């Protein structure tokens, strides 16, 4: 089946991109835009966990779903980073590091799959930590306000996005080191 529940949830992350971007062009005041965009990002990002859970629970895993899931994640993160750069809430350097790594590691994983060495670049804890830092930093930066009168999400978001950038480089080096022996045997 092409359109399973998990695949539809994954597709919602791609559909979310113009919606999140469009919020910042809506005739709303800035605090409302920020709140709506942050909530939308969190809701759509949550589908990443939920679609994987449902795919396993309902036995609806598919090659298409396995391909689409990381693509949807990368689209959502990259589009959100571009919005944040446009709003001047994050540094373009951070966005370039994160987006560049996503492209490089996606290409590396594709190449490793073609040569039958996918396991050498399987998801590692460093990559998961990077993703977690991004997924908290982005809605914090989208919201860009004070929560509960004490948590300045703009400041925390800046710290977390820089931590994500450091983890991004670290994870890229890790995956490249893991792939290097396989690459050397193929040259």
Task: Describe the structure in your own words.
With 187 residues, the protein is an all-alpha fold. 79% of the residues lie in helices and 2% in strands. The chain is built from six helices and two strands, in the order αααααββα. The protein has helices spanning 5-23, 30-57, 63-86, 92-114, 125-143, 153-186; strands at residues 146-147, 151-152. It has a two-stranded antiparallel ribbon with strand order 1-2. The mean pLDDT is 89.
Rg estimate, integer Å: 18 Å
N-to-C span: 39 Å
How many H/I helices?
A: 6
H/E topology pattern: HHHHHEEH
Q: What proportion of the residues is helical, as a percent range?
A: over 70%
* Helix-and-strand structural type: mainly alpha
Summarize the structure.
The chain has helices at residues 5-23, 30-57, 63-86, 92-114, 125-143, 153-186, and strands spanning 146-147, 151-152. The chain has 187 residues and is mostly helical. The mean pLDDT is 89.
How is the topology of this model organized?
Elements: H1 5-23, H2 30-57, H3 63-86, H4 92-114, H5 125-143, E1 146-147, E2 151-152, H6 153-186
Antiparallel strand pairs: 1-2
């Amino acid at each position: 089946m092409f359109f399973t529940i998990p695949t539809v949830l994954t597709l919602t992350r791609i559909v979310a991109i113009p919606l999140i971007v469009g919020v910042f062009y809506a005739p709303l005041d800035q605090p409302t835009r920020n709140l709506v965009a942050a909530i939308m990002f969190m809701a759509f990002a949550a589908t990443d966990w939920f679609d994987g859970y449902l795919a396993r629970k309902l036995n609806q895993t598919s090659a298409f779903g396995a391909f689409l899931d990381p693509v949807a994640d990368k689209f959502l993160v990259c589009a959100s980073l571009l919005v944040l750069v446009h709003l001047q809430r994050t540094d373009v350097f951070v966005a370039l590091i994160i987006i560049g790594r996503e492209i490089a590691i996606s290409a590396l994983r594709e190449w490793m799959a073609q040569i039958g060495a996918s396991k050498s670049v399987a998801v590692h804890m460093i990559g998961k930590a990077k993703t977690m830092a991004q997924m908290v930093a982005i809605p914090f930066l989208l919201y860009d306000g004070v929560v509960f009168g004490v948590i300045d999400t703009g400041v925390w978001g800046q710290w977390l996005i820089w931590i994500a950038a450091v983890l991004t480089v670290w994870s890229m080096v890790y995956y490249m080191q893991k792939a290097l022996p396989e690459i050397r045997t193929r040259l």
